[in-house]
Fold this protein.
Amino acid sequence: MHVSVISAERSVFDGEADGVVAPAHDGLVGILPHHAPFMTLLGQGIVNISRSGSVTRLQVMGGFLQVASNVVRIVARQAAPANS
Amino acid sequence: MAKPRELKRRIRSVQNTKKITKTMELVSTSKLKRAQDRVVGARPYAQALAEVIGQLYSPELAERFPLLRQPGHTGRGAGVRRAALVLITSNRGLCGAFNANLIREARRRLEELEAQDAHTELHLVGKKAISYFKFTKREPASQRVDIGDRPTLEHAAELAKPLMERFANGELDAVDVVFAKFNSAVSTPPTTLRILPITPPEKRRSGGQEATAAVNYILKPSAEEILRQLLPLYVQNQMYRALVETAAAEHGARRTAMKNATDAGSDMLNILQRTFNRARQAQITQELAEIVGGAEALKG
């Protein structure tokens, strides 16, 4: 599935992934390929985007997450690569 | 004809000015590039926000959100009693008619609003706007000069937040922003955008509309709650875009102005150099004639 992470200033991540774990407003949500259409508000925390074993970690705050037809869109007020 | 020494002095002066304008042109070009990247970078976010709000928006929900409250239902603009106008200009000059155009657009809008009997307050960004309205002795409601050419989200939030609060409390009926829309480096028309009340973004593309309407999202917590969170972000983002586009447009305008100045300098230099050469030649000819004349006289 395709994942894009967009912050107000620029597009932070754009690519294919096998799974996404994101901090929603009331706890973590995990999205796997072919998830049902879904929309939720984001809280604050770290998004993990995994692709064949490797994980990209991004710090996000605010905004929303949208899943539709195998495309995940994370639109965050702030987003930046997280330093592990 | 001017004296060669006088010409020499003017040539040097034009040369120096040309160096400065040339450098400013180069600086603006590189700043424009970066500002342009920021404008482009901000686009996907704005698009995504607009799309989602368009999808969630329904007239029934609109009643419940103060930010969507349309002023009055009788006649166009009949309900606008108190409006705010935000004018964004640059802090620095030497960018052609850029600021003058923005100020002209703002004044046009002011007159329009006041013709509707709306009490309008001014919020000014940038030294150029402030000094103009100081000259016209019109007191702005707020002013700031600290934004410069790298506007951030925080700047936009600081500007938009008090306006949103006052709009939600019913102290304002409309908020307009006058800024330079950045179509391209050479096309930056001054534009008025009504950011409050929010005009629900259109659902784009008729084909896409059907596709998205068919999707039944699982919404968490609820459409209403999501809208409540996203609407302020949308307003803030519009303010941010206005700031970023104006910053980019400023550099575009300055580059053009400085390019014109450099070209004009080159033309001037050409004419001066030619006049100087002619004056020098005339002097040499004159001296030769004198020497020859003197020798002739000595021969007797």
